[in-house]
C-alpha cells in the first residue's frame, strides 16, 4: 500500500462514522448524562457524593459469572475471550446493538506482533511500541498496565482476523517510526456481528437498549449490576467499559474545562465512570480527547461531515494547515506546525487548552488554498509527513464563496479590509500586535516565539483578511477511574475493590495527556485491555 492512502485510512475512521444513523451519534448536540450520578450529586472534584446512586431492586434477576457493562472494543473482546473460556457472560449495552459504539465506527487499532505485520515484514515488537508510548507518557501512566494491555493487542487483532473481520496494515501516517495501525475494512455490523455471534455461540447473552445504573455491592464486594430495565444482573465479577464521557457536558466541563462537540457516540456519557465512583472507586489524573483530525467544528456545527468525508463547510479545514492561530485574546499559543503534523493528538489538546481558537490569514493564503492547495502553496515540504493528505481539505473554488458567506452569517468567520476590523469583530485585543510580530518572523524565516518550521511561515499582509473561529471536537475521551496494573478498580487508598474491573477508556490509568501520537492507540489499548481483563479473570 502506498503512502497516498484513501481518505478513510487517513481519517482513521470507518465509513459509518459521524454519519451513522441511530440514537446518540455525532450530529447530535452533546447530551448531559441521564444515568448514574446526577450532576447535583457530584462533589466539587466530580466524585460521587456520599448519597450515591439509589439502589432499586429489580423485578427480574439474571445470574452469570461475569457481568460486562458496555459492548464496545473492550467489552466485546472481554466477552469473547471469557465466553470461549467457559464463563457465562451477560453484556449490558445501552444501544440497540453493538454496532453503535465508537468501536463500530473507528478506523482501526494500533497493535504489535500481529499476523498482518508478519506478512508484510513489518512486525512491531512489544518492546518497540511499549518503549515509544511509555516514553511519550513521561511517567504519567501506569507503565505496567500499559505493557500488559499492549501485550494483548496482537492477540485481539489476530482473533478478529480469524473471525473474518478484514483489516489492512496502513503506512506510518505521522512518522512515528513503525506501522502499528490496522485499518478495518468493515464498518458497523460488519465488524461487530462476527464477534457477537461467536460470543452467543459460546453461551453469552446481550441485553440491548439497557443501561447499567449501579454496581450492586455487598460488604465492599461487587456482586452485580442494577439496570434501568428492572433486571439485576448478579455476578461475582463485574467489568465496566462504557466508552468514556464524550456525551456528558457536565463531566466535560469538570475534567476538560470546556465542552467538546462529540463526533462519536453520545451514549458514552460517563455512566460507567459514575457507577465505579459510586462503588468506592477513585478518579485517575489524566484527561484528554481524541481530537478531530479532519479539521475543526464551529459553534454552529450540527453535522460536521459529508458522505465523502469532506467538512460540511470547507472553511473548517484550516485547523490542519499550520498557519497563524490565536487564542481568545488574539495571541499565539503553540507552534502551529505541531498541530498540522499531529492534528489528532496535539491539535485536540491545543484547542482544549485554548477553549476556542482563531485561524487568521490574508488573501494570498486564502486564494492559494482554493487554487494551488495548501501543500503546493507551502512548497510541498517533505518534512510535513501528513501534508499530502491534509490537502484533501483544501477549499474548492466551487464552494469557497458560498461556504464563506454561510460561515459569516453563522458568526464564526469574518472577512475584513484590516486586521483591526477582525480584532474588533472577535474581540481579540492582542491580534494586531500578534500579526505584526508574526509577519516579522515570516520575513526572516525564523519563528522566534515557538520555532515553527519555516515552510509554514506565510505572512498575513495582503487585504482582504480572514478569520475563522473554531471550538473543540473529538471522537472520544480518554481518562476515567483509577485501576491497578491488573485493571482492578481501586479506591482512594489504592486498594483494589473485590470483583470490580474497569477496561477501555472508562479507566484513566493507561492513557496519556495528550493522546498518544501513534494513531489507533485508544481503540488498540481498549481491545488489548479487553483481552487482558479476560485473561486476568480466567486465571483468577
Search tags:
single chain; 540 residues; alpha/beta; FAD/NAD(P)-binding domain; Flavocytochrome C3, Chain A, domain 1; 6-stranded mixed beta sheet; 4-stranded mixed beta sheet; 18 helices; 32% helix; disordered N terminus; Succ_DH/fumarate_Rdtase_cat_sf; FAD-dependent oxidoreductase 2 FAD-binding domain-containing protein; FAD/NAD-bd_sf
Task: Tell me what the structure shows.
The chain is an alpha/beta fold and 540 residues long. It folds into two domains: 7-30 and 59-290 and 475-539, 3-Layer(bba) Sandwich (FAD/NAD(P)-binding domain); 297-470, Alpha-Beta Complex (Flavocytochrome C3, Chain A, domain 1). The chain is 32% helix and 16% strand. The strands form five sheets. A six-stranded mixed beta sheet has the order 6-3-2-10-19-18, sandwiched between helices. It has a four-stranded mixed beta sheet with strand order 1-9-8-7, with helices on one face. Strands 13-14-16-15 form a four-stranded antiparallel beta sheet. The longest helix is centred in the C-terminal third of the chain and has 19 residues, at 521-539. The two termini are 43 Å apart. It holds the Pfam family FAD_binding_2.
